[in-house]
Amino acid sequence: MFESLSVPTLIVALAEIGDKTQLLALLLAARFRRPWPIVAGIVAATLANHFAAGAIGNWVAGLFSPVTLSWTLAASFVAVAAWTLIPDTLDDDENSSFKRYGPFLTTLIAFFIAEMGDKTQIATVMLAAQYPYLILVVIGTTLGMLIANVPVVLAGNFAAERLPLPLIRRLAASAFAALAVYAGYQALRLGGLS
After folding, report:
1. DSSP string for 109-145
2. What is its main location (predicted)?
3. Which 8-state DSSP code applies to residue 156?
4. Which residues contact 120 (CB under 8 A, 6 or more apart)?
């Protein structure tokens, strides 16, 4: 049970560093200079987005045999590991139209949209398919987002400029690769290549 919370927290915290939503958090902190409404917007957007993603992952897990699901997860984790190595960028104009709504609503809307199809959302789908406790997975992925983004919001440019992003991306990719190996091992243990 603890694994359903701890692994998603660690994976998303690592994957989120240098991600476009972290860049978005930095942009919002610089624009509004009001950290707590931004943090509240991140929490609300992430819970909504990751609960939907987790529900999909949980549903998909019931559609496949354990062996097929494990092989699919292994391949997906390999793909996300490779994706994690690619640095994200954030187009400044992408979210500029939202700033008139204030820090909370702007953050809520911008984060929800930015997470659509993002590697942490895809990771949430996969983690929810792998672990049986959906709520713990969603709490874990949300905690991971907060671990990575709240310091950026609170410290502004200071934290983001000093982080060794290439090393952190490699660590996150390694964590996803380890999950791929584990899922492949589970597939082999459950029944082989069928």
Report:
1. HHHHHHHTT-HHHHHHHHHHHHSS-HHHHHHHHHHHH
2. membrane
3. T
4. 12, 15, 16, 19, 21, 50, 141, 144, 145
**What type of residue sits at position 13?**
A
Tell me the two tokens of residue 145: 């987002």
What tokens does 174 get? 């390694």
Any idea which residue has 């494990």 for tokens?
70
Residue whose tokens read 């960028």: 89
Q: Which two tokens stand for residue 21?
A: 């939503």
Return the residue matching tokens 């987002």.
145
Which two three-digit tokens encode residue 53?
Answer: 């993603």
Whose structure tokens read 């992952």?
57
pLDDT one digit per residue (tens) for the chain, 194 residues: 899 999 999 989 988 877 778 878 877 787 777 889 999 999 999 999 999 999 998 898 888 888 887 888 788 778 877 876 776 555 544 445 555 778 899 889 888 888 887 888 888 998 999 898 999 999 999 999 999 999 888 876 555 456 566 776 677 678 778 878 987 888 888 775 55
